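Researcher: Hi, I'm a grad student and pretty new to this. My advisor asked me to get structures for two proteins we've been looking at. I'm not sure of the right format, so I'll just paste the first sequence and hope you can take it from there.
Model: That works fine. Here's the first sequence with its structure tokens right after it:
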Amino acid sequence: MAPLLQVNNLQVDFITEIEAVIAVRDVSFEVQRGETVAIVGESGSGKSVTALSILQLLPNHSARYPKGEILFSPDNSPPVNILTQSKGQLRAIRGNRIAMIFQEPMTSLNPVYTCGDQVQEAIRLHRRVSRKEAKEQTIALFDQVKLPHPAQMFHRYPHQISGGQKQRVMIAIAMSCDPALLICDEPTTALDVTVQNTILLLIKELQQKKQMGVIFITHDLGVVAEIADRAIVMYKGAIVEQGPVKDIFKNPQHPYTKGLLACRPVLHRKGERLPVVSDFMEMRSDVRSRKSEVQRHIVNLKPETLHPTSLMQVQNLKVWFPAKRSLSGKPLEYIKAVDEVSFEVYKGETLGLVGESGCGKTTLGRALLRLIEPTGGSIVYNGIDLTAKKRDALKELRKDIQVIFQDPYSSLNPRLMIGPAIAEPLKVHHADFTRLQRKEKAMELLEKVNLDGSHYYRYPHEFSGGQRQRIVIARALVLQPSFLVCDESVSALDVSVQGQVLNLLNDLKKEFGFTVIFISHDLSVVRYISDRILVMNKGRIEESGEAEEVYSHPRSAYTQQLIAAIPKGM
């Protein structure tokens, strides 16, 4: 029996005005029916390019395939080479025999059509059914992917549902024509652990029911251990290692694979410097010797525990949004995003804030900075009640309190070079600085976040995701704040880049002595970087305590559920 998919010696080039760039070189692998093959690697390793090549979704004007073949045999029929198919033949394959779930459902779904219409369209494109039959099949699919109230969900628009629900709509579209092969491109990135766990179980369940082949692209090694039969490790456009998942985890052969496995925060205690993958590529391939070397660089990042100084006191904080109004505009019902929340932040500590999507953690973080106006309660910072201050009076305090947003690309002006973007706060808060002084300070910060001062004149699109995250860290630190809110600042980064950013935050915290509220849905990362943890659920604090205590001995059922949902790896 021929494999469902066979990729042989694939090479993908991108033609630029100056040169041809080889994105993928000599890639070969197979996918069998009913098998899940995970492709892992950092950003730029070629994993998404390989997947998009299978569906021929790369831009025709720049992508070239100088050698190789992609053989597809969905029904034990003679395999066809996808690279030689016409546009009409490809249309019959895409979405029908091979389906794909993309990384970001909000940009993949059309905001002007209802969720039901978008699934219905996929069904009617490949199946000769009436509109009524397509609607019935769509509602049945919504039920199959466990969306609540499937009939009502048919009429909802993408902006009216949560991230996890949008991802399930994408799965429904992908499954609408019973594909033989499903390609999942980072389908759980930036989802909280419980939603991620639900999506993984759903994909596994649908695969077993339909006997599909699945290609699962991810940078999360815990997810690989949870869902895959075989793993392919890519680095700089080539496959460096592949085999059964158990063999890859228990006995990795390539230095890059060893580095990926070693730099997961879950394996390291607080203060222990995370290994960097590049060190393993420099022939430091012995994990044990590397780990002992790492442990010699343990730094004490914990604040004074004998007499901690309270820097911020939050009392009965509320952030309510009107959900329903009367004809006169008076609010009748509220969404209680943050409800009666009280806690303290101690000087020099890292306070972790965790919870599912929609629990209120980002709203709380922004309310502390008065980026969202609180409905009630008080926020006292360094003896100053922030809730009593008028907006104009807050300007002086902005120097001291900064934020690193979740998506660095959308928080940087694409038309502004990164040097002036970093220097801009100095123009606002330090009018006495000359242009040269601002530039020198920005270049100094670029060096501190492990970027080159020569990058001053580059634009945001010229950097990778991890580099952009370092740029926004530099911008947040240019005013030397004493209080920093990190909002999901590593959630969408590769495990290797994530390790570098976490090391950087620890180094900078040690140098500048600032206090951090670290917001994340990843409990393993929060446990690694935090001194204490607050667990939020439905706008309230569910549990709090020392980081290791909350992680190892959770008291509330909700925290236990969050920890149980973390992919543990092997």
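Researcher: Oh nice, that was easy. Here's the second one.
Model: And its structure:
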Amino acid sequence: MIRNQVITVRVQLLVILAVLLFVSLVFRLYHVQVTRHDELLKRAQEQYTSTTKTSGKRGEIYDFNGNLLVGNIPCCTIVADPSEAGDAAQCRKTAAILARYLQLPEADIFKDLMDKKRDKKDTDGKENSVPRRYALIAKEVALPLAEKLGRVLKVEKCKAISIQNSSKRYYPKDELLANILGFTNIENDKTIAVFGIEKFFNRVIEPSAYVNHYERSRDGIPLVVQPERHALDGVNIYLTIQEPIQSIMEDELDALVEKWHPLAAYAIMADPNNGNVLALAQRPSFNPNDRAAMDPQAWRNRITEDVFEPGSAMKPIAISGAIDAGVVSPNTRFDCERGHWYYAGKTLHDSHPLGILSVAEIIQKSSNVGTAKIAITMGAPRLYNTLRSFGLGQSTGIPLKPETKGILRKLEKWDSLSIARFPIGQGVAVSPLQLVRAYCALANGGHLVKLRLVDRVANPDTGTVIHNPIEDVPSIYKNPTTHQKMVEMMKRVTEEGGTAVKASIPGFDVAGKTGTSQKFINGQYSTNRFFATFIGFVPAEKPRLVLLVTVDEPKNAHYGGTVAGPHFKAIAEKTLQYLNVMPDEPPQPTIVKPQPHHSAPKH
């Protein structure tokens, strides 16, 4: 009886123990299969799955007519899967092969291949060691070298190394437009846009990437677990720039630098009818394909970042406000005081002694005294509103960053001298782009067009093309006769008796203005450091282009008509020929007078 009771108790204990074990197993299975399912599945997959990352092609940049300015050269990226690289002997063998073909330190590659684990936090925050599946060995490897290396790796059975197709950025025109296009760098296997068009449009130029996952069998053969998908390319950018005109400009800018040895120089050309920037360049510049000794000061975009006092190039802008308001006419006369006028405690000088001149002659002879008297006649509020209406003190909105707003003090901060100095281009500062935009308005009847650097963007995957719209803006002028009056007066600047006869183009009427401005250094105007400028439009009556040439600290001369004028002529004349613009009138042939014949003296 007692024995049966003992057996019964033992059986009951075994049953209870079995139940407890079963319940424990159920809870354990629930915890593993449900609570930690995602975590454990992921860890398991990391043991037998791999990933490959594919990236589309970075968008390319073209000129208006489809000439390639920035492209991509096919190349390869060499990567390793350290978890599959084998033991130390195999890793050393693989490292030796890679080092020999890629010209890389063998020790560094060996260290990378032997680094087979990485720490990763799970969902509970605990750190776990997982296989290290990716290590970058080399980037931008030329295709022939990569193909040769691939064959060697296959023969030597180095399964841990993969060669992936990629591309590197290439600038086929070298220095052409370099400061505007910008460039990219590769940092930590990622493309970084540094500045220029490359950076401003990086979000749309940058391609998308896609990660494909696959399982591996025991012998390393990939078994795709989902349909392979491809990344999308970035969009292509088409600029308003025309490469032939850009080449003309850059060649002439090089000639300018060779002759005048300036600190810097700028040239910008725009179509005043639609705001299209046709060409723009600066010196110094750089070659984005060769950055071994590249000075950041050379690739900084001075055209949007720098400001300078425009000097007499400001005069037509200011005087147009007086003409438009009816305060003066082209024939209104002012006493220019023989080049010396005392006003508000300071003496204002002209470069030459001038007497009584009409408004038209004041522009032609570039009288500071006459312009100041016109400004005083029109009044400070009207002068300020005129300068603002031409875009001074405001960014142009061109797609390049950073862009300066220039310097134009608010009216309430003007002093007694401001009204006599601002209209002659002293005490105000503009960027080269601001001045070009203002002269587009002078050329096209007072319409302050938005400067366009990008004409359209194209999606290579869908074929969609989106055009940058041309904005229709009202005229600054209230008087319909203002435009023609200003054009007629500005034409006289390049005619006989004007300050820029060297900017004249045979057969064409050129309207423009010189600017010679002292540099403001350490609180005072320098007596030997200048900006020399000529800006104008041609043909004057039906302008096809506005062109600015500015030279920073030229040597041996400093007047805008002497330094910048001839280079304006050279660029504009060649561009008109390229655009097939017919002359206003046929150039007059040069008449060579016959020389009298002198017989030899008789002895």
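Researcher: Is there anything I should tell my advisor about the second?
Model: You could mention this: Residues 595-603 have pLDDT under 50 and may be disordered.
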